[in-house]
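For consistency, the fold was encoded as tokens, as this record shows:
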Amino acid sequence: MQTTHRADSNPRLSRRRALAAGAGAVATGLAGCLGNATDAGDGPVAVASFFSFYDFARNVAAGTPVRIENLVPTGLHGHGWQPNASVTRDIIEADAFIHVGPGFQPWADRAIQTLDDDNIDTRLINSREGVELVDLAASLDREEEGVGDRQGLDPHFWLDPLRAKTSVDNITDGLVDLAPDHEEQLRSNGETYKTETLDAIHADYRAMFDAAPRRVVQLAAHNAFQYIGVRYDVEMRPLVTNLAASGDVAPEDIRRAQQVIAENDIRYIANGVFEARRPAVQLIEETQAEAYFPVTPYAGVREDWVEAEWGYAEIAYNINMPTFEVVLGNKSPEAAGPDGWADEWRNFA
């Protein structure tokens, strides 16, 4: 069971008692944010700190009274986002908080500390529990990206669909603890999602990467994709190392990218949907690459994706896979995605 309970000599403070108490019980960082307690509805509510795990949870909870909510606003990257204190209230009001483990989202760590300090009974579901992490790539900024005791581990494990299955297990256990009367449905949903969705994505990725004529991907984005490289024996070469890189790229980084692109005869590169465009534009201007196409580490969603009810799987098949087909040389942009994909995403603004 991956749900954390706080066991100490002080009684836990329920969410509704905390809210009714106003700023008294959870004053730190929450001044002016608390109001009257409200009913959560027919079933328990779990809020998620990151889109990927929100999507896993809503698939596990399908057909049960458990309601899953995504804390990250539409259009924002779930890693670089810094919410205001009202989000901690949302966590306090919820019955459970699904998070990505310590060290990845500082705001989530602070919210968890507030829950601990004030003995609030929101359950904690650590989606990273038991996942085998790999060392940071040399290209990753340890201060910006790393997790672990010495910030030496890459946190982006959910890009690997097989590692993501452990998260589904963690979330399933946590939701069963939250709604034990619906254990059979929750566990059935979790197993179905792992076999019919994550295993299918893995098989399609494996076939695509095995067929690739080259083993190098040039990213204009930061390197959130090392786990795909590790799983499918592909070298991911980022241009920038952190989410704050929005201006011109350092000359030495451009020179390295120019060399990679020339040596591997790369015509197309990948750029993050929720990241700055300038590094990608600079690469197109200063190398033989002709265009960039989208990738995303499932860290956020656009409004049109929400309207289309896209989740982890839909983003994999409509964004990441077509781009990897193109940048690896498997297919032309026109043949990689659905009709109109190349026109929509070529050098997207």
Observations:
- The chain has 14 helices and nine strands.
- The CA atoms of residues 145 and 154 lie 7 Å apart.
